[in-house]
């Protein structure tokens, strides 16, 4: 199973910022009804990782590194003896 950790943007009051609200790179809103992005959050479906930071780029890069760590597969499968090896 591939793990997922979608990025979500949030306002300062903790409410979810809709996907159609666009922001500048600093989080200032381009939509007149939006108070602005206060933080970005990602929670991995593995249950062992989550991040909440004001910098969307930092969360995105950390997320990529975390998801890459899942390519080795679950530890229980890595510890099984290989049937194609000596």
SSE inventory with pairings:
Blueprint: E1 7-10, E2 39-43, E3 50-53, H1 56-68, H2 75-78
Antiparallel strand pairs: 1-2, 2-3
Region (Disordered): 1-32
Provide an overview of this structure.
- This protein is of the alpha+beta class and 86 residues long.
- It has one domain (7-78).
- Helix content is 20%, strand content 15%.
- The protein contains 2 helices and 3 strands; from the N terminus they run βββαα.
- The protein has helices at 56-68, 75-78, and strands at residues 7-10, 39-43, 50-53.
- A 3-stranded antiparallel sheet has the order 1-2-3, covered by helices on one side.
- The chain is elongated.
- The model has no long low-confidence stretch (mean pLDDT 84).
